[in-house]
Amino acid sequence: MSIESPIKIFSGEKSTYLAEEIARAYGTRLGKYTLQKFSDGEFQPSFEESVRGAHVFMIQSTFQPNDNLVELMMMIDAAKRASAYKVIAVIPYFGFARQDRKDKPRVSIGSKVVADTLHSLGVSRVMTMDLHADQIQGFFNVPVDHLYASSLFVPYIKSLKLKNPVIGSPDMGGTKRANAYARFLETPMLVSHKSREKANVVGQLTVIGPVKDRDVVIVDDMIDTAGTVTKASEIMMEKGANSVRVVATHPVLSGPAMERIEKSPIEEVIVSNTIPLKEKSDKITVLSVANIFADTIKKVYHRESISGNFIV
């Protein structure tokens, strides 16, 4: 007679706000977990309940990636040493995802380093959302459940009942995502072509596509310093757009991002809660991904198909 292994859901320190929502949506509670900190910055994770023989789901977004990633790695090691049956890393925001290729000599491919490290620690599976580049899934030698926040954003955009919508991509790399949104919303699309002077600094930006008298919705996987989207919104309004909104799954919002958004003509920024907002703004709307992750965890645990969770 086989015995079903129990499920345990734990959270890293900085993702507790989201993990609690996911656990409630699943119908359980978060497992007991502590993080002992030392004065020099070192820390030690500890599970305060048995995980022997359990499916252990560890929720930790790796925004401000260094400490959060190391904590996740040590949580995985602790669970494996405590005889967990399977360890699944749930990483709503996957840090280092922008380092997906060798774009100049003598640089690392950071996302491959993270994938190799998680695999070497013994993860059975990885669950994440809106990777910066789809090919990162191929860096892993375990199953990757790559979820999309479009199942939240598409219904929300429809609810706005925009009179003359058009979907925009902030750069050439985002055209596949923008095209998927445009297809589901049955709207045309436009593309912004940009050149960067250096990381997080936009040089020239050109908008290609229908703008005049349009309600523009720019879609992207993340919004970091907000330099691209605010510059694009200014150009679009100059070209006669009715309004500009931005949809971005991961609100990194570093450096001058909030100030730029507040001063920009952007009417609304719609984001998910894979990363907590550092400060609130009347321009920012936050949609929760908790139900998506809870449902996917349930289906993975019960060995059911998750293909119905995908819109884009």
From TrEMBL:
GO molecular function list: ATP binding; kinase activity; magnesium ion binding; ribose phosphate diphosphokinase activity
Superkingdom is: Bacteria
Pfam families tied to this protein: Pribosyl_synth, Pribosyltran_N
Task: List the protein's name.
Answer: ribose-phosphate diphosphokinase
Tell me the Gene Ontology biological-process terms attached to this UniProt entry. 5-phosphoribose 1-diphosphate biosynthetic process; purine nucleotide biosynthetic process; ribonucleoside monophosphate biosynthetic process
Ribose-phosphate pyrophosphokinase N-terminal domain location, by residue? 7-122
The protein's annotated catalytic reaction(s) are: D-ribose 5-phosphate + ATP = 5-phospho-alpha-D-ribose 1-diphosphate + AMP + H(+)
User: Which SUPFAM superfamilies does the annotation name?
Assistant: PRTase-like
The record's InterPro entries line, in alphabetical order, gives: PRib_PP_synth_CS (IPR000842), Pribosyltran_N (IPR029099), PRTase-like (IPR029057), PRTase_dom (IPR000836), Rib-P_diPkinase (IPR005946)
Alphabetic keyword roster: ATP-binding, Kinase, Magnesium, Metal-binding, Nucleotide biosynthesis, Nucleotide-binding, Transferase
- What EC number(s) does this enzyme carry? 2.7.6.1
CC per GO annotation: cytoplasm; ribose phosphate diphosphokinase complex
Origin species: Salinivirga cyanobacteriivorans
In the UniProt record, does the keyword Magnesium occur? yes
